[in-house]
């Protein structure tokens, strides 16, 4: 399923893939930027637009699956 996603997604496309709201997904990109890449959803800038690489989305999900429940 994830291999069907484009190599670079808009935040809205990433939100749909994660089944999250657009605002929450934007919050996760801001968290990633502010934490220096420690937590949150990785993205890259294409000009003034955020794009979420498919590979980063896969790693994000894998990291969540490995995290201990709190």
Task: Give a verbal description of the structure.
This protein has 70 residues and is α+β, with helices and mostly antiparallel strands. The chain has one domain: Arc Repressor Mutant, subunit A. The protein is built from three helices and three strands. The protein has a three-stranded antiparallel beta sheet. Helix 1 crosses helix 2. The radius of gyration is 12 Å and the shape is globular. The N and C termini lie far apart (28 Å). 14% of the residues are buried. The model has no long low-confidence stretch (mean pLDDT 93).
What is the CATH level 1 assignment? Mainly Alpha
Query: What's the alpha carbon Rg, rounded to whole Å?
Result: 12 Å
Number of helices: 3
Biggest β-sheet, characterized? 3 strands, antiparallel
Strand content: 5-15%
Total domain modules: 1
Q: What is the topology, as strand order, of the major beta sheet?
A: 1-3-2
Q: How would you spell out the order of helices and strands?
A: EHHEEH
By CATH, the architecture is named Orthogonal Bundle
Structural class: alpha+beta
Helix content: 40-55%
What is the 3D shape? globular
Low-confidence stretches: none
Query: Average pLDDT value?
Result: 93
Instruction: Compute the separation of the termini in Å.
Output: 28 Å
